[in-house]
Amino acid sequence: MPSRRAVLAGSAASVAALAGLGGATSRVARRPVPARVHGEADARIGFGGDAMLGRSVDERWAGSESDGSAREPAGVWGSTLPALRRLDGLFLNLECSVSTRGERTPDRGYYFRADPGWALPALSAAGTSFASLANNHLLDFGPTALADTVDHLDGAGIATAGAGRDRAAAFEPTVATADDLDVGVIALTDQSRSYRAGPDSAGTAWLPLDPERPETRERVETALEAVYRRDPDLVVASLHWGPNWEVRPSATQRRFARWLVERGVDVVHGHSAHVVQGIEVYRGRPILYDLGDYVDDYIVKEGLHNDRSVRVELVVEGGRLDRLHVAPVEISDERVEPATGEVAAWVRERMASLSADFGTNVEREGRGLSVPLVDE
């Protein structure tokens, strides 16, 4: 099977000029539908939203790694842990630094930092393959804590992208492993411009996530080219984007997500709104506009139920991206639990209703939902 880079570059028909790019070209992949990975692999890859392990979550679970403790770091995942361990990999947005060092960035309303003593064993216990660092809290405790976070996660074997010691490092993609699959990842954010990395300063991969912006097109296409050179099985774009508390993506977000798929991205992994948004299937690829909050200590907004979200599992069968399983979850006492009863019903109805806006076919599957990626 040819590499993505070969598919993208191999024919004049797959290259189209995009107005306003100053003579540069924008590659548009001719992608197979249904989407496939190399070979005939079977896999199940999980995607969650924001994992905020700081503040009260940190207070509850710090020290749980110690001998004789009645708690274990993996307790933060509650009764979802067996389901997480059945996955071939888990992709999350890590909404905090992982460090015991650093100084608070002035004039920030909230500061999120988790002790690596328990946070790293917790992430490893969940089978975390990738943690996005492109968000509005990675620099809460300055460049020292940011650097610690990158180093700690790397030491734990967890791939990261979206933040770094300078702009080049922040925008550098990564390749995560999910069983036998290599998953290329880019991570971007349009939140907290003041946290953006500079040519010689630490920060995040901040961009206005709008395909009509020439700088955005250039930077994203450069990052994707770097991914394709490594010839992964799948490509994920992890995006921390959009305003809080909005249950529907903006028109600009929809354009950007589709633009990414047209350029070879297999999964758009959205987060930041603190509430779930719908799922769109575009060219056989899932766009997860926002997966809400997976675990945190936030006050619950009346009517929005930001303590309820989903874990989305991408099911690959025989090398084909076959379907999504959508598992309702609920945050309770600084840990995440499977949603049941009325809560699970609310999540199912909300996800089905919001996904219907995109014409997405949603089916009941146990306590959750199934979204086919292939027309039988």
UniProtKB/TrEMBL annotation:
Provide the leader sequence positions.
none
| Source superkingdom | Archaea
Cross-referenced SUPFAM superfamilies: Metallo-dependent phosphatases
CDD domains attached to this UniProt entry: MPP_CapA
User: InterPro entries, alphabetically?
Assistant: Capsule_synth_CapA, CW_Biosynth-Accessory, Metallo-depent_PP-like, TAT_signal
Q: Which SMART domains match?
A: PGA_cap (SM00854)
Ranges of residues in domain Capsule synthesis protein CapA: 44-298
Q: Which PANTHER family match?
A: POLYGLUTAMINE SYNTHESIS ACCESSORY PROTEIN RV0574C-RELATED
Family in the record: Belongs to the CapA family.
The protein's name is Poly-gamma-glutamate synthesis protein
Organism annotation: Halosimplex carlsbadense 2-9-1
Origin organism lineage: Archaea, Methanobacteriati, Methanobacteriota, Stenosarchaea group, Halobacteria
